[in-house]
Amino acid sequence: MRSFHSLLAFATSLLIITGQSSIYRQYNEGLVAQSKSMSSSHELDLSLAEKIIASFKEPKLNLMKKNTARQDNTNQHLVISYLALRRGVGIIGMALPVILVVGMLFVKTCNTIQPSISDYYYTKLGNVLVGSLCIVGMFLFSYRGYEKKDMIAGKLASLFSLGIAFFPTGGPDASSACNFLHRNSESWISTIHDISAASFFLVLAYFCLFLFTIKSPHPTRRKLMRNKIYKCCGYAILLCILLLLVYFNVRSLRTALKDYHPIFVLETVALWAFGFSWLTKGEAILKDK
Question: pLDDT-derived band of residue 27, with 50, 70 and 90 as boundaries?
Fold first, then answer.
């Protein structure tokens, strides 16, 4: 049943994000082409105006203004849609841990915080987890950015996000009340999940530290401030990964901190850093005036 729901969530997110993929291509690749097209269009219009200047000069100039205004409105719509999707991904990243914890409070048989975010796969909110990962994954798959390395990073992050969703962690004991599926993943599937999760966060840190911080020759003051936010988010993600590595490899720490859900806490911090960086990239924070 979970597999069916996972595939349904994947297909739904694919339809939603694919419907927006043309926006990404137009916004990221169309700016230069648009500039050339507008320039060519203006030259043609002026040439015609010169030939029939006696009777059509004023109507022609008005038509040029209308075409330019219409093109500007279209571009503005594309930019708003693109930025809105960035914000949406940021909101999903920040809201997911909260939704999982709050949602489980209404499940009478299991209202405790799970050891990790991945363990929620086996709860009654597993579809929420899988669906969110699919939506984020498909957005990142269609993300093109400004250079080829942006596109490569996006596709890698998408692959790892879907790996987290479709290769679940080992999970709680099959007889546990929190294990709604009453089963566990095989060790090799859990290994793929762990590798995907670590790689996913590493790519997100790369986005924050090396891609989002690229600036023009004359960056605005707010752009410089946004770059500081990106770096803080990137370093926060890396710190969480480092602390998780220490926790997994030091037995005494696992014993002492187990009841405090350190894996869940560090994953949540990393997701919040990811979400906050994408909200900032979507100009929900420190938008240029």
Answer: very low
Torsion of Cα atoms, 115 then 118 then 124 then 126, to 10°: 170
Task: Tell me whether residue 219 is in a domain.
Answer: yes
Given a contact cutoff of 8 angstroms between Cβ atoms, the answer to whether 269 and 236 are in contact is yes
Q: What is the rounded distance in angstroms from the CA atom of residue 87 to the CA atom of residue 276?
A: 9
- pLDDT > 80? residue 69: no
What distance in Å separates the CA atoms of residue 197 and residue 174, rounded to the nearest whole number? 22
Contacts within 8 Å (CB) and 24+ apart, 264-269:
264/97, 264/113, 264/114, 264/115, 264/116, 264/117, 266/240, 267/97, 267/116, 267/117, 267/118, 267/240, 268/97, 268/117, 269/236, 269/240
Domain membership of residue 249 as a residue range: 2-281
Q: Is residue 287 part of a domain?
A: no
**Total tally of structural domains belonging to the chain:** 1
Q: How many residues does the chain have?
A: 289
Per-residue pLDDT tens digits for 105-149? 988 888 899 999 999 999 999 999 999 999 999 999 988 888 899
Cα 210 from chain centroid (whole Å)? 16
Residue 100 lies in a domain: yes
- pTM score > 0.70 for this model? yes
In sequence order, the 6+-apart residues with CB closer than 8 A to the CB of 150 are 143, 144, 211
Instruction: Tell me the C-alpha distance between 137 and 160, whole Å.
Output: 8
**Alpha-carbon distance 263 to 120, whole Å?**
13
Decide if 131 is inside a domain. Answer: yes
What is the predicted pLDDT for the residue at 171?
A: 92
